[in-house]
């Protein structure tokens, strides 16, 4: 039987049904309506991705536990490590803040590489990686080694005026690990893996007369009707419940967004860091930290910290509120502008963790009780909680709701 040259695929952003070529070589199939990538032909095989993942796991112990940079304080060398920063936070009593740093800089990078290797192992032993593939797609945005790398540069600018700073040779392991992790993000293709491990779930031909359904988890387009014992319709491939009402989805987004907004209030009022120098204690809030960089003449660093700590969180919350209100009141605003705003929220959300990573590095270098000391302020926990909650809110906002309202408004205008 001759394989079909194309198949039907619903776009997971605008829900349009598109005919996609079965074979793509160094090409990308995009939705003609919203330009969302439906399939990429430039992704790597699972074997090559597993080699990259193994390299990451080999380098991670060096990247996480070996010194990134060091200072000489009264003749005593003090080293900063990723693990040491989170551990110092935890032992000083900031357990929840330490957990947030540890989750994004240690736990999730290790888990991401391990999941890729587990998928490779499951292929070798002939097992189906359903849960492994689901977890792989869920945790990618929580792997923040690239954000931590920028945090290293910001922390270096902060410390250089207090003590002599030098970068250790082991930072090369962290830089290489970060590059490999970003490369693995780009080159691994969960859509193709779902198709390779579950070939019996056939793709629909372009002339299929049915109105197909899209699974938002594994992005499988199908026309079967699979119902569980509770009467919920489920995806035949990954078994995701497809009967979650839009009202419930919106309630989840509203709940996380409102909670995240409330957390932003103490995050901007209370001090986020406390520095002691020769007995003089100074507490810095988010905005006062930016002002300090400006007074030191470090305008580039001040801009980075301002954008990541203040501009991005405020703009993210404002955009999410706008999109939710647009859905509720069915505003007739340009849909492509709304999609650009949603993409902006997805892209910049994780970069707000920059401040917490800088705090962890500073705590690793500057210990309490010395002439030069540093500790985390009350605002750190609230700031981290706000970042986490708004990231969850943006991840749960379904863009297809906006497109559905756009189509309804368009039909009403005709």
TrEMBL record:
Residue spans crossing the bilayer: 49-74, 94-119, 131-157, 169-186, 301-327, 348-367, 379-397
Gene Ontology cellular component annotations, sorted alphabetically: plasma membrane
Recorded superkingdom: Bacteria
Chief localisation class: membrane
Subcellular location: Cell inner membrane
Protein name: Paraquat-inducible membrane protein A
Alphabetized InterPro entries for the sequence: PqiA-like, PqiA-like_proteobact, PqiA-PqiB_transport
Keyword field: Cell inner membrane, Cell membrane, Membrane, Transmembrane, Transmembrane helix
Family statement drawn from the similarity comment of this UniProt entry: Belongs to the PqiA family.
Topological category with respect to the lipid bilayer: Multi-pass membrane protein
């Amino acid at each position: 039987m001759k394989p079909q040259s194309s198949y039907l695929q619903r776009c997971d952003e605008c829900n349009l049904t598109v005919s996609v070529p079965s074979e793509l070589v160094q090409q990308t199939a995009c939705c003609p309506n919203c330009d969302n990538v439906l399939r990429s032909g430039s992704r790597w095989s699972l074997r090559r991705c597993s080699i990259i993942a193994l390299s990451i796991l080999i380098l991670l112990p060096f990247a996480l536990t070996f010194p990134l940079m060091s200072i000489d304080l009264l003749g005593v060398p003090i080293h900063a490590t990723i693990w040491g920063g989170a551990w110092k936070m935890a032992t000083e009593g900031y357990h929840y803040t330490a957990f947030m740093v540890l989750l994004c800089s240690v736990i999730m990078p290790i888990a991401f590489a391990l999941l890729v290797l587990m998928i490779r192992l499951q292929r070798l032993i002939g097992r189906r990686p359903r849960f492994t593939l689901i977890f792989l797609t869920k945790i990618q945005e929580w792997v923040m080694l690239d954000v931590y790398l920028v945090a290293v540069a910001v922390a270096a600018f902060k410390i250089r005026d207090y003590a002599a700073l030098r970068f250790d040779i082991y930072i090369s392991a962290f830089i290489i690990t970060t590059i490999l992790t970003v490369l693995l993000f780009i080159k691994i293709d969960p859509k193709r893996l779902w198709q390779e491990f579950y070939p019996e779930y056939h793709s629909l031909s372009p002339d299929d007369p049915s109105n197909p359904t899209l699974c938002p988890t594994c992005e499988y387009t199908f026309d079967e009707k699979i119902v569980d014992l509770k009467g919920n319709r489920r995806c035949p491939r990954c078994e995701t419940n497809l009967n979650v009402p839009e009202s419930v989805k919106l309630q989840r987004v509203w709940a996380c967004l409102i909670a995240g907004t409330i957390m932003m209030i103490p995050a901007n009022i209370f001090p986020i860091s406390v520095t002691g120098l020769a007995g003089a204690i100074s507490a810095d809030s988010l905005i006062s930290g930016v002002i300090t960089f400006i007074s030191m003449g470090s305008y580039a660093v001040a801009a980075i910290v301002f954008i990541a700590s203040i501009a991005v969180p405020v703009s993210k919350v404002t955009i999410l509120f706008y999109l939710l209100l647009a859905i509720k009141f069915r505003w007739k605003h340009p849909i492509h502008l709304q999609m650009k705003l949603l993409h902006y929220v997805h892209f910049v959300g994780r970069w707000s963790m920059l401040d917490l990573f800088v705090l962890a590095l500073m705590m690793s270098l500057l210990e309490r009780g010395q002439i030069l000391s540093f500790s985390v302020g009350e605002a750190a926990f609230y700031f981290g909680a706000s970042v986490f909650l708004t990231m969850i809110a943006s991840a749960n906002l379904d863009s297809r709701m906006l497109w559905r309202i756009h189509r309804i408004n368009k039909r009403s205008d005709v």
